[in-house]
Design a protein that fits this description.
Shape: globular
Structural class: mainly beta
Helix content: under 10%
Radius of gyration: 13 Å
Number of strands: 11
Order of helices and strands: EEEEEEEEEEE
Strand content: over 45%
Length: about 120
């Protein structure tokens, strides 16, 4: 089993930045999929970004150029750097990993962007 603990959410003005962290209970270097999702009130959860074990990344079109996903295998942690935040980025953000076909979720962290 993998346990994930998120941190870094908060309230920020439009144009500001936040960095979310997702710390795993074990090694993440071999985990093929590590991702960040978000869910805004009344909306479905959506995949924002993911990074593979090989370091390949993919981002939602609406966050490209503003968000970056990265990982530090030595710290068993991966990150979502969010710059130029917009009010529409307001959501609860969840980290997720898939290991051996099983998905694990963090507890979620609130990101609120004020206009």
């Amino acid at each position: 089993q993998v346990q994930l603990v998120e941190s870094g959410g908060g309230l920020v003005q439009a144009g500001g930045s936040l960095r979310l962290s997702c710390a795993a209970s074990g090694a993440i270097s071999s985990i093929a999929f590590k991702g960040w999702y978000r869910q805004a009130p009344g909306k479905q959860r959506e995949l924002v970004a993911f990074i593979t074990s090989g370091g390949s990344t993919n981002l939602l079109d609406s966050v490209k150029g503003r968000f970056t996903i990265s990982r530090d295998n030595a710290k068993n942690t991966f990150y979502l750097q969010m710059n130029s935040l917009k009010p529409e980025d307001t959501a609860v953000y969840y980290c997720n990993v898939v290991q051996a076909g099983v998905g694990y979720w963090g507890q979620g962290t609130q990101v609120t962007v004020s206009s």
